[in-house]
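Input record (one chain):
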Amino acid sequence: MNLFYELMGSYQRGLRAVFTPHPFIPLSLMREKGLVFNDILQNEEDMAFAAMLAVEEGFDSTTLPFDMNVEAEILGGEILYHEEVEGHPVYPTMGVRTIQTAEDIRIPGNLSEAGRMPVILQAIRKAKEDLKDQAGVGAFIPGPFTLAGQVLNPDKMFVMVLKKPEVFAAILERLTDLLSRVRDAYVSAGAEFVTVEEGGATTISPRSFEKLLSPRLAALFSDKKVPHALSLAGRSDRFIDLLLACRPDALGVDQECDLATVVEKTPEGMPLFCICGAYDMMAKATPEIVCEAVRRCITTDRVFPLPPADIYPPAKPENTAAFIETARQG
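The corresponding structure, as predicted from the sequence alone:
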């Protein structure tokens, strides 16, 4: 049986597994092990080892890769890696963006050899082998809209949504094809679940979402061999009906949504992953405040609390421990 289903079932029976459907990097533990942030993004051994640190911290799953630039790099985007600032890691950013139309999107024939795919696929295999059913291993991909924001000029993209929706729809169609192939490669390598992160898709209207994005997300979720969680940031409660129509196996929301509305609209039995607490809670709060935030989040056994930012700013080990213990005990 897929370990993801086993963990969800155990949680709903009151045993409370603690998931990380998004990547979580325990920075202090990473440094203690001598890992360098940029290396865990580009080296298969370091990536796998860093992924397993989440399990060492106490989580029942781990998710990789750790950044959102993999697919953009496959399409020829320039990835800029940065040195630490005041001792804090900095995620890579996009440099030159060359995509302007759907015709500019050229998907490599041998996708598993493109960009960092060989590194990530091997890291998934290694993490899966080393964990040996001790924890679930998942994959993390952007949704079509989020990926569009990586390969297009963001300002031009939003103008396109409003004034040239047919052009943007064609771009989303090609990007969805790429994401389907990346997802399939991750699953073939051993990923037991997939989280599709649609980032800032709540910045467009529900009408635009339904017209432009819903058909692509539905296509992405129509042919899945493992459970898929669909995660949306911001005021996602306005979009819940649209998200459910895409037929994910689980939903993910953040602190900005009206969780009560999401719980009310979501079918009984569908897991809800909810980021709880302010973005800097894991870095600046006390363990007592962390525990209180987690307890407030667990309004029903369907809600899986997720920690906010891990390295932006860096989570304190005692807060991570408090989060996991409270999430497990309820």
